[in-house]
Amino acid sequence: MNKLCRHSFNVKLLLVMFAVVIFGPGTLHSQTLDEIHKAAVKEGGTLNFYATLAQINAERILPVFEKRFPGIKVNHVDATSDKLVARAVTEARGGKTLADILQVPLENVSQVHDQKLLLETKLPESAEYPDGMKGDFWIASDLQFFVAAWNTNLVKKEEEPKSYDDFLHPRWKGRLIAEPRDLEMLLAFAKYRFKSDEKAIDFWKKIAAQNVEFHKGHSQLAELLVAGQAAACLTCYSHHYPRRIKKGAPLNYMLTEGVASINGTAIFKDAPHPKTALLFARWIASEEGQTVMAKGGRTPAHPKVQPVEKTRTKKIYAISVADLKEFPKYEKIWKEIFRLR
Known about the structure:
CATH topology of the largest domain: D-Maltodextrin-Binding Protein, domain 2
CATH superfamily of the largest domain: Periplasmic binding protein-like II
Radius of gyration: 22 Å
Shape: globular
Order of helices and strands: HHEHEHEHEEHHEHEHEEHHEEHH
Number of helices: 13
Distance between the termini: 64 Å
Structural class: alpha/beta
Oligomer: single chain
Number of strands: 11
CATH class of the largest domain: Alpha Beta
């Protein structure tokens, strides 16, 4: 056996030994969820879940997990993503990791990974996901779409936009609103729609010439449309509209194309309940778990699972981990285009 082969063999042996130490004989990645469940219960029956999952969704999703895997209770630590990141980092610096699972926007997952707190692992379920929806330390749990929406009392049926290009028409001047912090629109258009910074910048400069009015808060944008204080919104969340429309609001929204921000699931490297953490991570990434996410009101990331409401666009421009590193660059350009402070 030559030196290179011996080195390769030793690395593989160390990886196997690591799996055995962490998960016990026979890595849990290759076991069924029910087999992992048996091992997880022996850890104490608790999952410490640091997540921004809204309570209205959590109340419909987490009890299903607990029922599916008896003997395990989820301790949902609910806070804003920046507070969860700060809490996890502070706890780690204090010498103790308390969280098992992190489920927050991908930007914040990346921040925690930069602190070397997350487990590098590939879940078997990740094979079903496209490259942009998974990484070495995370997998997408659900998606949030930026789309265009409009008030149907103010926009004629024949004038309803079919793509973002339609907003370049002179009829939209002085009738558009948007969220000032949504630089993802520029970034995603540059990386995926046009595959060119120059073309994306030119497009948004033309949009800026339409005298877009900015308001903070996506819920506020939706309410302004409902009230008829604007004709259309360029950066609205798709999940804000089905419920309002069902209640009779004069709204419609565009699902031909949209920008997707990803919420990711990750396992803490020194999780106090590593087997329970793996059980949840694998379940929530599976078709079964993703179907529960959909029924719980989220837009699932799994390509084979459809959302209950129409919230997923046909063309998806998804923000990746690599893209997050370029936020400062695109934020600067975005602010310059729209003269934002």
